[in-house]
Queue: 3 jobs
Job 1
Amino acid sequence: MGNKLSKKFWLLIVALLTAMVLAACGGDSEEGSSDADGGGDGGTTDDGATKITAWAWDPNFNIAALNLANESYNGETEIELEIIENAQDDIVQKLNTGLSSGTMKGMPNIVLIEDQRAQSFLQSYPDAFYPIGDYFNTEDFAEYKIPPTSLDGKQYGLPFDTGATGFFYRTDYLEEAGYTHDDLVDITWAQFVDIAKDVKEKTGHPMLALDPNDLGILRVMMQTTGTWYTTEDGTINLVDNEPLKVALQHYKELMDNDLVKLVSDWSQYLAAFNSGDVASVPAGNWIAPSIEAEESQKGLWAVAPTPRLDMEGAANASNQGGSSWYVLNIDGKEAAAEFLGNTFGSNSDFYQSLLTDVGAIGTYKPASEGEAYQYENEYFGGQQVIYEISQWMEEIPQVDYGMNTYGIEDILSAEIQQYLSGKSLEDVLADAQAQAEAQFK
Amino acid sequence: MSQVSGSANNTKRQSTFFTRFKKNYIGWIFILLSVLGIGLFYFYPMVQAFLLSLKSGMGANLEYVGFDNYARLFGDPTFITSLTNTFIYLLVQVPVMIILALFFSVLLNDPKLKFRGFFRTAIFLPAVTSLVAYAVIFKYLFGNDGLVNELLLGMNLIDTPLNWLSDPFLAKITIIIAITWRWTGYNMIFYLSALQNVDKSMYEAARIDGASSIQQFFFITIPMLKPIILFTSIVSTIGTLQLFDEVMNITNGGPGNSTLSISMYIYNLSFEYTPDFGYAATVSYVIVILVVILSFIQFRVAGDRD
């Protein structure tokens, strides 16, 4: 009898438990306001201004740019901008968890997203972003910025900074190896490798520093021909990707001949050129402030256009990094879009102060004729670095980064390890292709 | 309690119910709270995660695909790499750590040892450091121009700095060294406390019978510690299967996925690549299944029959 009774009691507990659980899932979506976690829902403040929030990373760069934009905003709608700083990884996580949960509570009005990630967000969360193509003229911006920021003909992102690359080099080392600036302008990557060999032989310095986990240099090489790991319709394009093949051959040649200083993180990468160890830094223009940070090397640096792959239609310009502004599809979206359009979207003077105050080079083409862009940089021997970069920016071949850049790169970097230790290039690419197709169907 | 027949049955039953309940109701309330809590915060999410693992798609566009995700696991080379790596960590690191912890605990249990408390604290201290902080320090120690290379170079053991973090084999070694440093002291504490419960007279008797200290260790200490060894190896196994912070911060899974752990792959699937939360949930269920299987095997191999 005691048994029976306890059974009944357990039944009661289970029933209670179920009721609680059901109540809990049914209830919590309605209750509670999310004002606490800083998410502006486009509310109106007391003085009638629309309150919008923005998420971005890097206080010296993106946040500073937003603050500057806030000061120079002169649109009709009164706007009160609240900027919330987050690390980029955190923004990616918060967006993913927030948007996939289906609730827009706590989401910002404006968010900064890296170009190579943008498609993955736009396609994963179809209605989460607000098309802002009506608020600015896409033709004013560098063309290569448009495919990553748009989807199905709708413009979702307002292009921000450029990752236009340059071939930054030490004039003293290159001179010692017998090269002048003119010898380095508009060269191919094959020539770059030859120069690297000369530099190593005559000065003993490795040509560049690379982190084996970061295939950025391959992307830079590939984009000079306008190709990527995937084609425009998303097909994985590794095995018959001629530019990638050539890029990998150059990569291996650099590694095999000991022309590369291997580093394992960012601070080591910076130290490699600040210490005077490596002779050049082929990277996005955002590296310039880090080069300039080493006062003692003033006047010893110059920049040449990015080498190109020796192929039909390749340009001496490429891109590494860069991000754009997006507006989320929540209350206050019109005000947010108006804010972006009024500042980043059309204000040439704003871009001049952006350059002088923040050091950010935008992708807004009319701005490059402004005065700040003509600045002759003493650190680079009086070169008009910014102006040159903005000219290269307009030549960067367009590429659709697709959705799987980072996923494919993880597969590829494993295969590249094997390529460096002797596996044939055909096998490497064929295996990588098969793996990528299995993973991203 | 005897059976009572007729109408008295019901009233009797009820009254026993109430008396029992009255007598124990505070106890029942205590249980109720934790049962509800566990149900709500453990089992409900587990069921939801299982349902999620039956879906697939980009971000918010999830749809039911049945067991496709589970089939996909077998053809996913990155998953297989992460699984292999995790098992390499498991098979190398857990035994090494358990043996080291046993060794230290027996050493530090010697009542004649001076500064025992200091040594115990020193070895236990890594276990209270933050995972991320120590991982970052290890990253610098094992960097190309880090302390470890400087030491090895200074002692003329190597000619050129070893690429600890960018060589697939050495990177795994680095991770294993890091976890071992972090967790050995933690396990040692369990053994030390268990050793306090071993009756000293057994050692005395063994010594009188002429057993050497090595024999004492293998025939008294180890059998007496068996339940604790089982417990620590299960906990360490589960911990290793969930390895994330070290890999994320020291090598970021590289070079070329050669240190990728299952947990880090789950992270990559959710936040690094185009998010597929359904598939990520499937991979996390693999960890659940592995934990169950491995714990079961360990119980079978080492556990007492009763």
Job 2
Amino acid sequence: MIWVFVAVLSIAAMGALALSLRAGAPPREDADSMPAIFNDQLAEIDRDVARGVLPERDADAARVEIRRNVLRHLRMTGAGQLGRPRSSNTGVVLAMAFVPLFAVSYYTQFGSPGLSGMAVSEQREARLERQRVLALTSQLEDRLEADDAGGAFEGWMLLGQTRIRLGQYSEAATAYEIASKRPEADSSVFSMLAEALIAGENGIVTPAADKAIDEAALRDPSNPAVTFYKALSLQQSGRSAAAHDLIVARLDAVDGFFPWMESLVAQANRIGEGIGRAPLSLRDFAPMIAGPDADDIANAAEMSTEERSAFIRSMVQRLADRLEEEPDDLDGWMRLGRAYVVLGDTNAARQAYQKASALARDLSDSDPRNAQINKALGSLRQ
Amino acid sequence: MIPEIGHFALVLALALAIVQSVLPIWGAARNDVVWMQSAVWSSIGQVALTGVAFAALMTSFIQSDFTVVNVVENSHSLKPMLFKISGTWGSHEGSLLLWVLILAVFGALVATFASNVAVHTKARTLSVQAWITVGFLSFLLLTSNPFDRVYPAPPDGQDLNPLLQDVGLAMHPPLLYLGYVGFSIVFSFAVAALIEGRVDAAWARWVRPWTLAAWVFLTAGIALGSWWAYYELGWGGWWFWDPVENVSFMPWLMGTALLHSAIVTEKRGAFKSWTILLAVLTFSLSLLGTFIVRSGLLTSVHAFAVDPERGLYILALLAVSIGGSFALYAWRAPSMEGGGLFRPVSREGGLLVNNLILAAATGVVLFGTLYPLIYEALSGGQKLSVGPPFFNAAFIPMMLPLVFVMGLGPFLSWKRASSRHVALQVRYVGLLAIGFGFVLWYALRGGPVLGYVSLALAVWLLGATLREWAFRIQLFKVPFRDAMRRARSLPRAAHGMALAHAGLAVAIFGFVGSSVWKSEQILFVTPGTEITIAGFDVTFTGAEKVRGPNYIADRGALEVRRGGAEVTTLFPERRFYPVAQSNTTESAIRSTLAGDLYASLAEPASDQAGANGAWTLRILYEPLVNFIWIGSVLLVIGGLVSLSDRRLRVGAPGRRMQRAPTVPAE
């Protein structure tokens, strides 16, 4: 589409130059205003004489001077003869060729013809959605602030979570801070406060954040977020080895598998990279999960399509077998359901999600996994 | 896609400008009609393409297309529509695009309407204009492309400085640029004349309407900017000798000199090389202004180094255009013929004094503006500022003789004037002015002598201008109807001059009144505090929070009484714009012809005091300040009336000339 406009504009620019070829008869070279100006100069002398600021004797001298200028001007005019040499058309045609050539070659080099303008309407929708969420959030905030009892604890937590999602970290920290002063405040409130404070400072652990981490550790030393942020804090104060050790110790203490272990392992590897420690793998701490390891992935990359599909099936089968033995693993069933969806086995996927759904009954309503399972079952039913 | 169309249109405009910078001037050298005429069409093509680019950028701002970096940095989806539009030229890139657009507009205007200009001169002029366009378009495209894209697009923009969210400011840069850039065409005419070796009365007449138009725009732009500083910034003043103000004032001073010098060249064939030099200097000062403002040189010499690419490019542009035109001038000017002779007491003599004073005044302003920069560069970063005391001491005394001569000048005849005759005509006006000064002194008895002298000179200028106008139409000497008939037959330029000179006189009342007899108080106020200023009793009744469309504000209330009678209530505001995280001051003004009572709310006195409603309040009374704006309007109207003069109307002399030979000699 953009190239249509490029063509139209180029043709217009060339057309403008082409119009100069129409310059037929030479325009009057004497399109010159000298006589009119000399007339005006004489008229002004008359006006000055009439209002009495110029004596007649001086006026005559001035008139003589103007007439002398007229003569000199007449001598000077009649310079070159205007013409239309044969080469003039060639020159214009060359210029007409130059214009689009120059413009298109510059534009293809520096322009962004591929960036579509459709983005504008998408942007507008995203912005409207964001504005709606922002409006709802400020409504919630107003309600909480107006509440004589100081607003519900859950309300402040919800406000904090929404602010985090909107990227308004310092506002989120304010909400969490209010929640943290309530008797209901447990370790997770403080770790979320720390998270908001750190995100608000672009990842720098401030003294205020350190304090929140310590408060969280005081209430529940096993809170994995405490380990995560404590390690970050240690690393930023130059004690990367201690930070790495802290995470490894925490992971060693785990019995079984929990989703947060992945981020702790990733965090440990980030820190370990800087001090030359060997990378860790999730399987070192949770052998029961049979996820693909680095070798598996490398192998999979070299396989043909059929081989890869068979390989994936065998991996999924391994997971299914394990779940037969440990049927209480909610996250495992969800992972299995997702795998079957990817493999296109709708029936098996539905069964796996139904198992997960049964286990999820004990979860609180706010747990996101409920929504994920319901959504997956909803789409599998169609 | 719209930004891409704009980008491509701009590149095409550059290609056309390159063609125009070569073909017409070459055509003029070999008498080729087609090549010379190509300037007309490529000028029109350029203005169309630059217009498309500008419209594309404006559309991106209106639609809040955040894939355009410039829109992200200078707009926000919540901003009022008017300021989304003005955001188009609010940024460095956008304002340069506007610069180039106006450059193209002036080129196209000359191409279309200057049909009375000789073919060769016109072709050369348009080529020179295209040289400037090539320089600025390539600067724009290579270092400050307004159509740079970003993907994925950020969710929202980063706003425009809320200070800039003002109608006065939305209009101020376009007008200022129309003035600045308008002088480009005069520069092009001058360079073309130097190349051609032809400077005569006709040349001066071709140049005059363009000089006048640029001067009118620049006057309006400066006045509007000053008005904006006065009403929006809340500084309680209208001129601060700030470098940004100075760089627009210098071309104005030079342009004013040029306007007058061109008259001598047109009427008497004299001052030729001087007029050319002024034309070159005026635009050079416009370029220098653009350079100083756009290179970041003002914040600090070191800010220049932060983005050296832009700074160096524009410095090179400056060196080539100013250096090139001066070299050309040095080479060609000596060959110009001298004009008519004149006595010291004559219209020429008066205009020479005007030119010399204006040029010297420009030098003073230039020195005061550049000295801190030079000092910082040479001293290795030590800062120094040259402020109002320097300019008041150096600039104002130079203006006094200028105003005196301004009153006399129009009475002088060309070539040789009679001092006795002129003195007879202005004696009553002189006595009136001196008497006014003494009466005022007796009545007020305060303030510097210079203040009284200035006001007396303003009365002198106003009186002399009116006297001269009345004299020309023989008002009160002949029946009123005859006088009106004479007024109608007088060239419009004469009316324009009278209006503009009277406008300056009126403005001087404002300048002097509001700076010499200003009263100012800055104090802590709590609800109930009473202040007495310039005869007003003002009571602060407290401040409350109010909510605007995209800001929240503290609004103070001040009850104003005089002699017990209620006059008005003022509501100064201090606004906070959450998106931009910044504060602005909205002053409250009670405006009358006699003077402005002006109040602005600064910060709460302290956090603690803020809780009790205590604020820092700035309140001042500026006598006669509105005369500045009235005078400026008169100056602009004077320029426009003069511009409408039949003799300057483009094309008219050409048609007249065809008939002229048939008119028998008088």
Job 3
Amino acid sequence: MILNSDSMKPIYVQIAEWLETEILSESIKADEKVYSQYQLAEMLNINPATAAKGLNILADENILYKKRGLGMFVSADAKKIISVKRRNQTLKSLVAELVREAEHLQVTEEELITMIQEAKREMKGDT
Amino acid sequence: MMYLTKVSLWDVVKKQFRFKLKSFRGMFTSLMILQVMALLFSLSGEGGGGGGTDMFSYDMKLYSGNIITAFMMIWALISAIVVTTQAYRFDDYTFVANRLSSHLANILFLGWASIIGGITTVLASQSLKLSVFFLKDREFVESQPLTVLQMAEGLAATILYLFLFTAIGYLLGMLVQRNKIFMVIIPGFLFGSLFLNVLLASESTLVIDIGQLFVRETSFLLFTVKVLLTSALAYAISAWISNSLEVRK
Amino acid sequence: MSVLEFDSVTKTYGEKKALDSLTFTLGENKITGLIGRNGAGKTTMLKIAAGFMSESSGEVRVFGKHPFNNLTVSANLIMIDNDMNLPAALSLEELLEAAANFYPNWDMKLARNLFDYFSLHPKQTHAGLSKGMKNTFNAIIGLAARCPLTIFDEPTNGMDAGVRKDFYRALLKDYIANPRTIIISSHHLNEVEDILEDILLLKDGKQFLHMPVEELREYAVVVSGKEEAVNSWLRGHEVFHKSEVSFGRTFAVIRNDLSDEQIAAAMKMSLEFSTISNEDLCLYLTSQEKGGIDDVFNKG
């Protein structure tokens, strides 16, 4: 993972999002241990407190759970929680932005839908 | 849980002393150079005379280690002044130190330097004697025979004199650190008193009087006590003066 | 127990107040960045904390003790700064050994490894080093001493970019392995902020801000747009900085405490929001006048 320090997003949010992506792609599976704050700090060259903040966000959302003295683990329904959250928050705001920009450029709803379908087709062609 | 290192004053002083032995080693280089110079000066002799009749004539020359001792006293004085300069004082605070430990380590170091200075002075005087024996074209060399006790007392006295001079140097140095005006006052006072001595053709002035206090002392024990007390006083005043200086800038 | 505590500490040099009732407390085992303009009192504060100078008034506590002329504080604290005094007679190798002798937690392996990594030569003298190399060497001493309170005052001055990066990385790794309280003062917040936990911002000898770095990122926001629009919207907001860009556009740095209505109102006036780097924010927060260098030229 590469941190983007120019990003609008604070570093701990970037860490949380990166871990979410890792969980979604099953790089880290349910009930597996995630990186400790110190491992993250060393990997990403950041203060351990910042790394801890990223982990704590996920713990607050029940994506991770703590085992005393052992560290943090991925909860059983972590994937579900993440995908619901991303649908409701990330995707919604991205769509809102998309619509706003389309409005700005006077792109009609049909045109916009066609563009989305085209983008999807291209992505499939690529993979 | 925070673990603080407990330190004892004496422990820190020992560490600083060891540190100073290394960092002040340049002083021993200057000591060697000075002694070689003093030895060369001494070889020309301090005084002498001559005379004769129709039948014979004689030449007489006096050689002594006085020049070597005088050079070493100046060395002791200047070394101590150097120790009080800002650069050397601040060196201590780079690592572990407080004022008291810094003064104690300095005194310990200057005491050590006096011992080395004393021993080498006595040795140099001996080598002067030998040099005169071998180098000079001589008919008679008359040297004062010394007993072991006299030798030991001579050595101890030299060391004590050097230590006294380090104490004076330390005090003068600290006065100058306190206020640069002493850089003018002290030499002014010294030379002034010597000039007065000449001008008034008087027998003594304050500076010489103080000197006599030590030189005229015939009891070795009393001499030792006088030197140590005076040195202790000078060091104590120096330490007191340094309290008004910042530890480090 | 707090490691470092300043309670309304004032330090005066003649007429000038270098510190003006400075109050703050540093908790244990945190890395704190000390930020401020030149003359804000950073070095004075650090030297008082290190026991080199005494405060004019107020109370200073390091490990619960008054640091000035205190042997225990001196044994548990190291301050690395640009005018660190090291005896000229000793070689670098001997200096490392001397330092090792003074500090019980000293890690000679770390010291030597860093020493080799940064291509220092054991026989060199400190006086013979360039400014950057001097500071590199000093920094090695600061790291290897492993003091419970470690202070770096502008440690990276003169170091090239690569060495700076390596130094901060070494600092972080050693901190993770051996947590301790560390203070770093720097002009370049952006190169150090990632490894900081807290930030302490001084201005005119006073504490201006003291908060986690991550909170500082959300402390302020930039709003920009047409001059009149920005000006009318700004009424009632806490403005840290405002300046004209060009083409009649203005941007302002304000406190990030906006309500949804305020944001909606701004959107309607087609104002734009953006974030600001911590370094720039600190510059704006500590600038003497509201405005900038451009205003000097606009005064005519």
